[in-house]
Predict the structure.
Amino acid sequence: MRQATMIFPILFTFFLLLSSSNAAVQDFCVADLAAPEGPAGFSCKKPASVKVNDFVFSGLGIAGNTSNIIKAAVTPAFAAQFPGVNGLGISIARLDLAVGGVVPFHTHPGASEVLVVVEGTICAGFVASDNAPYLQTLEKGDIMVSPQGLLHFQVNGGKASALAFASFGSASPGLQILDFALFKNDLATELIAQTTFLDAAQIKKLKGVLGGTN
Amino acid sequence: MRQATMIFPILFTFFLLLSSSNAAVQDFCVADLAAPEGPAGFSCKKPASVKVNDFVFSGLGIAGNTSNIIKAAVTPAFAAQFPGVNGLGISIARLDLAVGGVVPFHTHPGASEVLVVVEGTICAGFVASDNAPYLQTLEKGDIMVSPQGLLHFQVNGGKASALAFASFGSASPGLQILDFALFKNDLATELIAQTTFLDAAQIKKLKGVLGGTN
Amino acid sequence: MRQATMIFPILFTFFLLLSSSNAAVQDFCVADLAAPEGPAGFSCKKPASVKVNDFVFSGLGIAGNTSNIIKAAVTPAFAAQFPGVNGLGISIARLDLAVGGVVPFHTHPGASEVLVVVEGTICAGFVASDNAPYLQTLEKGDIMVSPQGLLHFQVNGGKASALAFASFGSASPGLQILDFALFKNDLATELIAQTTFLDAAQIKKLKGVLGGTN
Amino acid sequence: MRQATMIFPILFTFFLLLSSSNAAVQDFCVADLAAPEGPAGFSCKKPASVKVNDFVFSGLGIAGNTSNIIKAAVTPAFAAQFPGVNGLGISIARLDLAVGGVVPFHTHPGASEVLVVVEGTICAGFVASDNAPYLQTLEKGDIMVSPQGLLHFQVNGGKASALAFASFGSASPGLQILDFALFKNDLATELIAQTTFLDAAQIKKLKGVLGGTN
Amino acid sequence: MRQATMIFPILFTFFLLLSSSNAAVQDFCVADLAAPEGPAGFSCKKPASVKVNDFVFSGLGIAGNTSNIIKAAVTPAFAAQFPGVNGLGISIARLDLAVGGVVPFHTHPGASEVLVVVEGTICAGFVASDNAPYLQTLEKGDIMVSPQGLLHFQVNGGKASALAFASFGSASPGLQILDFALFKNDLATELIAQTTFLDAAQIKKLKGVLGGTN
Amino acid sequence: MRQATMIFPILFTFFLLLSSSNAAVQDFCVADLAAPEGPAGFSCKKPASVKVNDFVFSGLGIAGNTSNIIKAAVTPAFAAQFPGVNGLGISIARLDLAVGGVVPFHTHPGASEVLVVVEGTICAGFVASDNAPYLQTLEKGDIMVSPQGLLHFQVNGGKASALAFASFGSASPGLQILDFALFKNDLATELIAQTTFLDAAQIKKLKGVLGGTN
C-alpha cells in the first residue's frame, strides 16, 4: 500500500490529462423533454443532472388495462416516456392481450420490431410489399421480427391472457394504427372511399365507432 | 507548349502515386442485379463495365397507361430499374393521373417522398401518427413532402390529366399499397375483420375486386 | 350504429393508453429556423404549431429569372427554404435554363442528385474521381444521377428554354460553385495560381467578372 | 360481385405497372449465412426462398443451462442465429441466471442494450466513461438501458432464478467479455500486467481458470 | 476587362438567386459548447461567428506530460476540445509515451481508431470478441487500426520516447479506461469481485492506487 | 489452482453457450478485394483467414517521391490499400511536400479530413459554400479540419520539406483533383469553357500539361 500512496499524486496527473477527454465523451444523451428537439432526437440533459433513474423505467412492470373493445393494451417505453434511450437507437413496449385481444394492423414508420412472447400464445403477422403475408403462432419464448414500416398485427389466439414485449431499433419508432389513421379524424368519407375503395357505409360505421367526423 | 511537354513525364509520376488512391474511390456503386444483394443495397458492377447509360434512365419519359380502374399509373426508377442510384440514397418515380385518377393510400417503408406537380392539379395528403390529416391541392410547380412510412395518397382533382414526379431519399424506398396488402392475398377474411374492424362482406367484396382469396 | 355508441367509451380507453406513445412519435421535424441548429439539421417546431403549409412549397412554381450571364437560374427548396423536409433526407431544386443557359461546374458536398428534365433538352455531365467524364443529352422525361460530391454541370443544348428538377438525398445537400469558390473571394491570385495551375491573367480576369479581389 | 369481375382485368394492368416497383422493394434482407458478408451485414437470401420461419426464432423459448461456474447462460438471437433480423438494426438475447448467477463485466461494441426482467430480481449496472457507476436492482417488468460500448454486468440478487431478455439496436451487437478478453488467450502475463496493473499472480490464477496460456 | 465590367451586374443577379441556397448549406457545424447538445453532437455556432481558428487546433503541438506512473499522456482533440470537428465524423488525439510508457487497456465506445507512429516504437494491440489478440510492434510511419469498442492498448517498447497520433471516425469517440472504470469509483469490492473474478485483495490494492472507495 | 482445475469443465460449458454469439460478432470486416463490393464497402474476408497484418500497414513509413512538378506526393491507406479499415469509417493518407510543394485544389466526396503536420510548415485552406476561404499556416503538431466535399489544398510554405498525415472519416473517402477532373480527360475544350468560364487557350494549355485531349 505504500507504493500506492506514493504513486497516487503522479497518477492524478494522468487523470487530469485524460479528464478533459472524458468531458468530450457522449456516452449517452438522456432526453431533456423541455428543450428543443432535433431530427436525431431530443436534446440531452446536462451531464451533472443525469441519475441512474434516467436509465431505468418501471412502467412496464404494470399490466395494461385490457378492459376495452380490443381487449388489448400497449404500454410504450420510447424516448418520450423513457428518456434514457434517447439517441441510443433502441426502445421497447409492453403488450397485454386478454383472451381474444387484438392489436390491430399498424406500422412503425421508424424502426423494425422484435416481439418476444412472455406469457400465453400470440398469432402475429406482417404483410410484405409484394402483399405476401407472414403469419405465425408464437408460444412462450418465441420471437418474431416485423421489418420497418410494414403493416403488422398481433392476436391472442390462446385460452389465457398473453404478455409480450416488443423491441424497436429506434428510440422513437413511431406508431400509426391503420383504423385510427383512416377513421379517427375528419377526412371526408368520400375521399377515404376514393383512396381505399371501401364503401361509404363501412367508412361511416367505423368513423362512428372511433370518433371520426365528416 | 514546350514547357508542357517537358513537365509531362514528371507529372505522370504524380499521377501514378495518386492513381492507387483513385482505385479506392467508391464514387458510385452501379447495381449488379445478378450478384448477391446486401442490407445496404445491390452489389456494385465492376468499375470497368460502368457506362454513362448506367446513370441515365429514359423510362420516365413515357406516360404510364392510365386505362385502369384507378385511372393512374406509377412508373418507378428505383435501384432495381435504375441501377445507377444504388447506394446513393435517392430515387424517383413518375405519376400519371387521368381525370379522376387516384393513387390509393400507400406507404414507403424506406424513405420520405417529395412530390412535384408538373402538369395539372393534384390533391395530395398524408396522415400523421396522431391521426391528423395533412391535405393540399397542388398546382403545377408546387411540391409537397410526405414523411417516411406514413400513409399518403394522390388524387387528380382537376379537369385535365396530371403528371408528377415523386422523389425519394432512398434508392429502394419500397411501396406498400394498403388495399393490396389487405385484400390481394390469402389472408383469411375473419383475420382481416379481426385486425381491421371491417365487415366481412366489405372484405370479401374487395378481395373479389383485387384477386384475393380466403 | 347502436353498437358503435356502446363500444365508444371502451375504445376511448384504448386510445388513451396508446396516445402516450403517439406523443413519442417523431414523424417529422419541421425546421424552426430561429432555434439552434445541430449536425443533423435544424431544431423542430413544436408539434402544436405545425401546419400543412409546412409540408408544401410553392416557390418552385415560378420560373427563375434567366436574364443573367449564364442564362440560368437555380431555385432551391432545401430545409432553409422548405422547413418541412428538415430531417427527412430529401430536398429538391428547380432549374431554369434559357437557350444557351449553363449551370457551371459545381458540387453538392452532402448528397447525390437526380435530375429530371421537364421541358426542353439538357446536356448534363459529371466527372468521376478517375477523371472519366459521363455526359448525356437528356430529353423531356429523361433522368440522370450525379453521385455525391462529384463535379457536374448542366447546359441547355436545345433551341428552346429548358426546365428541370433536381432531387437530392439530403435536406441540406449544399452547393459549391467552382468559379465562385475560386474567383469570388479574396484568395490571393498567386495562391490560386499555385493550387490550380491557372495563369495569373486568367485568374484576374475571372476575379474581375465575379467580383473577387486580391 | 359482377362489378368485381368486370374491373379485375383493368386493375390487373395497374398491378403489372406497379409490380416492377415491388421487385425493387427491400423490405428485409434475410441473411444467407453461406454468401459473402459485408460491412452492413450478411448477404440477402433470394426473395423466392424466404419463408415465415426466417422471421421466427424458437431458440429463446428454452432455458439456458446455468450449471456452470457463473450460474448463468446467455442465448443470443443475433443475425448469425436468427437470419431474419439481418439488416434491420435489432436483435435480442435471453439471459438465465440461477440464484447467485452472474453475467460478468462485458461490452457490446456495436449497440446499446435494453434489459427487461421477466422473472426474478436482477442487479444490473454499467460504468460510464467518467467512471461513474449506474446500478439498479430491477424487479419483474423493470427495464434498464446500457449505452453502446460501455462495461456492464448483471447479477441475480434474489432468492429465485431470474429470466430476462436483452434487446440490442443492431442485428450483430457483438459481445466482448472482459475476463475472456484478458485471460482466455495467449497474451503474455507480463503484458497483461503492464496494461492492466494487475499482479502477475492474479493474472496467472485467472488464466488457469479460463484456459489462457503464457 | 471591359467585358468583365459589362457582365458583372448580370452575374450579380445570378449570385442573388443562388445565395438563398447557400444559406441552406450546412458545410460544417462548429460546436457551440454552451448551447444544448443532441444525440448527433453539439449545437452549431451561428455561421456569422465562425472563424478559421474554429477549424485549427494547436494543442497537439505540445508534448503531453509523461511524468506519471504510466509514463504516458493522451491529449485529445475531440469535439469538446476542437469544436470544428463537431458533426464531421472525425477527431484525433496525441499520444506521448516515455520509455516504458503505457496507455493501459481501454475502449472507444463510439469509433474505430487508426494509430500512426511518428517517433519511436510502439507495441499496440487489441483483443477481438472471440478473445484473439492482435499485437504488432509498430515502427515510425506504421499504422494500425483498432475496431470500434474493442479493448486495446499501447506500450512503448523501444529505448526512446515515442509519439503517435490516433485518429477516430467520430467527433466524440469516447474513452473508457478499464482500470478507471473498475477501480476509480465507489463500486463495492465484493460486487467487482463477483463480476470480474478478481480477488478482493487485488481490487482493494488497485482502488488504493487509483483513488477508488468501498 | 486445484479450484481452477475443478471449475474449468463447467466454465467451458459457459463458453460454449456464448461462443455461438461470438460467431455473430462482426468486430471488423477486413476487405476481400476480390469479392463483390457493395454500397457499404468491400465484402469481408472469412474470419479464419484474418491475420494481424490485415490491421497493420507499413506503406506510410516510406516517404513519397516528390520529384515531380508539384513537388508533392500523396500515399493513401484507404480500404483498397489497407483492407483492415473496410467498414470501420476511418482511413489515413501520408502527404510529403518538398520545399515549394503543392497538393492542388481537390475534394474528398465521401469524408471530412483532419490534417496533422508532423514536420515542417504547411499552409492549408478550404473554401466554404458561401465562397469564404479558411486559410491557416500550420506548424508542427497543428491540426486543421476540412469539411466533407469542400475544395481544399495544401502548400509547403516553409524552407524545409514537410510531412503530414490526413485522416478521413470514411474507409473510402474518395479524391477528386480539380485540375485532373477538368483537364486530364477528353472533355471538349468548348464545353469546359462554357462550364468554367475559362478561356480556351488556358484550357488547351493545361490539357497539354496534364495529357487531356479535345
Notes: Residues 179-210 of chain C form one domain.
